[in-house]
Amino acid sequence: MAKYLVIVESPAKAKTIKRYLGSNYTVKASMGHVIDLPKSQMGVDVEHDYEPKYITIRGKGPVLKELKTAAKKAQKIYLAADPDREGEAIAWHLAKALGVDESTECRVVFNEITKDAIKDSFKRPRKINYDLVDAQQARRILDRLVGYSMSPLLWKKIKKGLSAGRVQSVAVKMIIDREQEINAFLPEEYWTIKLELDANGEKLEANFYGIDGKKRELHSEEEVNEVLAKLSESFTVDSVTKKERRRNPALPFTTSSLQQEAARKLNFRAKKTMMIAQQLYEGIELGKEGTVGLITYMRTDSTRTSETANIEAQGFIENAYGKEYIAVEKRKEKKAANSQDAHEAVRPTSTMRDPQLVKSYLSRDQFRLYKLIWERFVASQMAPAVLDTVKVDLVSNDVMFRANGSTVKFAGFMKVYIEDTDDETVTDVKDGLLPPLEDGEVLEQEMIEPKQHFTQPPPRYTEARLVRAMEELGIGRPSTYAPTLDTIQKRGYVTLEEKKFLPTELGELVIDMISDYFQEFITVQFTADMEALLDAIEKGDMQWTEVVDPIYKSFEKRLTRAEAEIEKIEIKDEPAGEDCEVCGHAMVIKMGRYGKFMACSNFPECRNTKPIQVEIGVKCPTCGTGEIVERRSKKGRLFYGCSNYPECEFVSWDKPVEEPCPVCSSMMVQKKIKNGVKVECTSCGHHETRIDQEQEEE
Ligand SMILES: [Zn+2]
Ligand SMILES: [Zn+2]
Ligand SMILES: [Zn+2]
Question: Which residue has the higher pLDDT, 695 or 544?
Answer without folding.
Answer: 544
